[in-house]
User: Which sequence fits this backbone?
């Protein structure tokens, strides 16, 4: 029987997954391609590449209304609770890049690092769906052309994951929260919606941590 609870607790062998998602926000719409591996212990390791449009981001405190953003992130997800309602703690960390084509500031490019810590709960909704609830804390620092805090953000997150087949899952996520950076000259809030698909090749039991 294809049960979500079995999927959440199944870790008999390492599983590989590929994800593709699109995120929509007024500041930085972007796409992400990721690969993840779930180990026998339940720990998940991953790597993601993000490419986006700079429509409302900040470079050294100056607004950027045109340009490109890129990020390369590593990911570690540790299961905290694996019976019934599942609880995970995820850390994403890596470099980020900004190339500005439209800005009022004196610089046209920036390099920095970003870290996001996210506890998330997964609540089964029948056999093929799960509710995802949690929050995340993001810290990003600009290292060049100046060294300064780009963003500190506390974000509330919620969404739904749906299994379309044994190996394909669809995920929708909504995020909203406050942001502070560049001594008050940066972004003030974040509202973002994400839609993604996850493919787990040769998987007999889907798992829902997109």
Assistant:
């Amino acid at each position: 029987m294809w049960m979500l609870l079995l999927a959440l607790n199944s870790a008999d062998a390492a599983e590989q997954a590929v994800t593709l998602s699109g995120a929509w926000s007024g500041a930085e719409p972007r796409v992400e391609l990721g690969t993840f591996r779930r180990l026998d212990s339940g720990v998940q390791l991953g790597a993601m590449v993000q490419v986006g449009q700079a429509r409302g981001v900040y470079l050294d405190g100056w607004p950027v209304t045109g340009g490109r953003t890129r990020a390369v992130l590593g990911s570690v997800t540790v299961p905290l609770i694996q019976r019934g309602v599942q609880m995970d703690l995820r850390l994403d960390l890596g470099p980020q890049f900004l190339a500005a084509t439209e800005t009022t500031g004196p610089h046209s490019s920036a390099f920095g690092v970003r870290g996001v810590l996210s506890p998330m709960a997964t609540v089964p909704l029948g056999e093929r769906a799960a509710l995802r609830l949690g929050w995340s804390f993001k810290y990003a620092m600009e290292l060049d052309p100046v060294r300064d805090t780009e963003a500190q953000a506390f974000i509330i997150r919620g969404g739904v994951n749906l299994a379309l087949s044994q190996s394909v899952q669809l995920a929708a996520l909504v995020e909203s929260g406050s942001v502070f950076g560049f001594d008050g000259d940066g972004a003030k809030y974040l509202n973002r919606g994400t839609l993604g698909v996850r493919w787990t090749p040769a998987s007999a039991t889907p798992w829902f941590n997109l």
